[in-house]
Every structure is written in C-alpha cells, then in structure tokens.
Amino acid sequence: MNESIKQIAARLRGLREALAIDIEEMAASCELSEQEYLAYESGEKDIPVGLLHTIASHYGVEMTALLFGDEPRMNAYYVTRKGQGVALERSKAYKYESLAAGFANRKGDPFIVTVEPSDAPFPSNAHAGQEFNYVIEGSLLLQINGKRIILEEGDAIYFNAELTHGMQARNHVPVRFLAFIL
C-alpha cells in the first residue's frame, strides 16, 4: 500500500484515539460499517478525500492535518504559488495538490486534481457537502449517481457530493481540474 495512505490512516487512528472515540462511533459518524472504517484506518484501503473532509468537519479538525500531518496557521491569507501546493499522490491514478493547506478554519478545500488514464473500474465516492469541479486541461468523465457527464477544458460543474460520484480521464490523456469541496 502507498506510504502516504498508511500515514493518513495512522493520523486517522490517532485522531480517534485522541478523542477517545470507539470504532463503532467513528464508523457510524462516517456512515460506514465498522469493517469498512477499519479498512481505512488500517491503511488497507485508500481513504477518499471526501471522507476525510466529512471526518474533519464532524470532529472540528483541519482536513490538511489528516492529509499532510501539519496544522494550518494562517488566518488572514495564504498564497500558493503555481505548482507549489502541498501535493499528495493517493494512488497512481489520482494526485491532489492542496491550494489552501496553510489557511486555518477554511470553509472549503480547493485542490488541483490530476487523474491519470486508467483501465481500472470506475471509482466511486460520496461525502457530505457540495463539490465544484472546473476542467483546466484534458477531458473528464464524471459519473454522478449513475449518470455520466463529459466535461472538456473550460467546463465546470457544481453538485451534491452526497451523491455517489467518480472521475476518470478520457482519451488516454491525463486530466487536470480544480476541485473545491465545501
């Protein structure tokens, strides 16, 4: 399993232990079975960013602390220079670059996401809140609640992130898009 996934899993377990929350309660707050939650916490299964956003919001911690292990400190503004966002490669197919990792008490989480072409089964995810995606380059196949939508460069979508959704690069070319999770 990817080292960054193991590190996130360890921080997730540390959060649960620090808050003295049992596995049953944590799984219930995530709307997961205990077995599925334990697969995330043990690092056996990649933890979706949306799930981390849900956990961070529910327990009043910064999502960046779970993702990167650092607490944001800025509260007036935070500048991210081109290509200098805190990066996380969650798998060979997905790379996230946080655009606001150092800003404390964010109302949302902006990322530049790069999705590599893959023949893997269509990924699926669901999380609390809403999501905005704007395609910067490439072509994105987005599936929301079973409906497939193609987004090209310059296209944007805003949707209910509680609906099952997933993304794939099209035409055997990587796609980059701005994702804003609220």
Automatic annotation (TrEMBL):
Q: Which Pfam families match?
A: Cupin_2, HTH_31
**Native species of this protein?**
Microbacter margulisiae
**Domain of life of the organism encoding this protein:** Bacteria
One GO MF term? DNA-binding transcription factor activity
Q: Where is the HTH cro/C1-type domain?
A: 12-66
What is this protein called in UniProt? Transcriptional regulator with XRE-family HTH domain
Which InterPro entries has this protein been placed in?
Answer: Cro/C1-type_HTH (IPR001387), Cupin_2 (IPR013096), Lambda_DNA-bd_dom_sf (IPR010982), RmlC-like_jellyroll (IPR014710), RmlC_Cupin_sf (IPR011051), TransReg_Diox_bact_type (IPR050807)
Keyword DNA-binding in the entry? The reply is yes
Keyword Nucleotide-binding among record annotations: no
State the UniProt keywords alphabetically: DNA-binding
Q: Which GO terms describe its cellular component?
A: cytosol
